Amino acid sequence: MGVYVTTSKNPSAKTKVLCEALSLVLPGSTREQRGKKSIEQIFRRAKLLGKRRVVLIYEKNGVPSSICLMKVKAHSWDWVGEELFISKFRIYKLPADLPTELIVSGERKEEFEKLFDFEKTEGDDFIELACGKKELSFSYWGKPLIKLGLVS
Fold this sequence. Notes:
This protein has 3 helices and 9 strands. It has 152 residues and is of the alpha/beta class. The protein has a single domain, classed as Rossmann fold, CATH 3.40.50. Strands 2-1-3-4-5-9-8-7-6 form a 9-stranded mixed sheet.
């Protein structure tokens, strides 16, 4: 199923880079420019693509500032979880070929498993999402991919 990743309207270059990086590390995701789409149009597009979640990256003063998640249902949508406020982010060199599975660990594991609704991993080749109160960290075989500082 996967995730549909998009930005706020008129995103800055930094927001576009974060959006692209998240789409690479979230298995089964699709990234598209939002353009002038309304939230309702984003829901319809995600549903058309068969996605169960939407990740919207918002910005303030040209810098990514928050992430909101949308749950896509049969005929409607809901916001899921709380808005995640970004204090800083870092993107490391991303390998060309990343696995299609993700595991969640850390003190906020249950919360983020529900937020993203990923299928259970079956193999030993996966991306790890470590969820702490002040940081989200994506890694692959112990090497960092993306780190997001969070405001709690």
